[in-house]
Amino acid sequence: MQCQIGKINTLEVVREKEFGVYLEAGNLGQILLPKRYIPKGCKIGGQLDVFVYLDSEDQLIATTETPKVQVGQFAGLKAVAVNSVGAFFDWGLPKDLLVPFSKQKNTVSVGETHLLFVYLDVETNRIVATTKVDALLNREEPPYRTGDQVSLIIGDRTDIGFKCIVDQRFWGVLFFADVPDRVFKGQKLEGFIKRVREDGKIDLSLQQTGYQKVTDILDDIVAYLEKNGGSMAITDKSNPEDIKRAFGVSKATFKKALGALYKDKKVTLAPGSVSLAKKS
């Protein structure tokens, strides 16, 4: 079997010691899982999902803790220390993640959040990262269509919006007009493709575009009415913030959805209220 350093692997428990258990890692031999990480019910012959990396003494070790990022992935992480070797980032494990000076796009200071890519140094088997991520993205033609759902990592703020990493593969732009709430660098969000331009650049949105947004909340409105005795005081005249809080969409989208429900005779509209239509 091939066990991969810097990734989560499913390994078999083969030996038990006072200080932990050893896991069979195939090409990497047997790896220690320290006692503090052993889950209840662990037995020899059982299998565990563990993350494999080098500890502070550069020894292979396993943990059942899940890091914020694995080898081959991008993430936004905060710098917690800087020394003569480079900058160290919190990635959710006891040993911080190193970005050597030679792999820093800009000088890193403690407390800053940077987008980085994690990789395995094949000469040392150490897991390290780089903030020079531009050349690692947009290396293929974007396969998206308008309305496709994607995963986003918020990047730097620009004059027009925020750069975002899309599906761990591409750069995209989230314009200020398409950001309903405050976002921050390194934040992970679900978003949607607004359009892919002829030059391959991607425009993003945090809400589905077009009529798809309307159809997606029709059932939500009906369910809200049913839960509240068949009527509600939220109408097309309501405050946009109240509409957003209740249904997660803009006032314009909500008005279109109400119109669709009224046209289908599923609701009745009155000044100050919306009610479920009585079934004939």
From TrEMBL:
<feature type="domain" description="Conserved virulence factor B-like winged helix">
    <location>
        <begin position="219"/>
        <end position="276"/>
    </location>
</feature>
<dbReference type="Pfam" id="PF17783">
    <property type="entry name" value="WHD_CvfB"/>
</dbReference>
<dbReference type="Pfam" id="PF13509">
    <property type="entry name" value="S1_2"/>
</dbReference>
<dbReference type="InterPro" id="IPR012340">
    <property type="entry name" value="NA-bd_OB-fold"/>
</dbReference>
<protein>
    <submittedName>
        <fullName>GntR family transcriptional regulator</fullName>
    </submittedName>
</protein>
<dbReference type="InterPro" id="IPR014464">
    <property type="entry name" value="CvfB_fam"/>
</dbReference>
<dbReference type="InterPro" id="IPR040764">
    <property type="entry name" value="CvfB_WH"/>
</dbReference>
<feature type="domain" description="Conserved virulence factor B first S1">
    <location>
        <begin position="5"/>
        <end position="64"/>
    </location>
</feature>
<dbReference type="InterPro" id="IPR039566">
    <property type="entry name" value="CvfB_S1_st"/>
</dbReference>
<dbReference type="InterPro" id="IPR036388">
    <property type="entry name" value="WH-like_DNA-bd_sf"/>
</dbReference>
<comment type="similarity">
    <text>Belongs to the CvfB family.</text>
</comment>
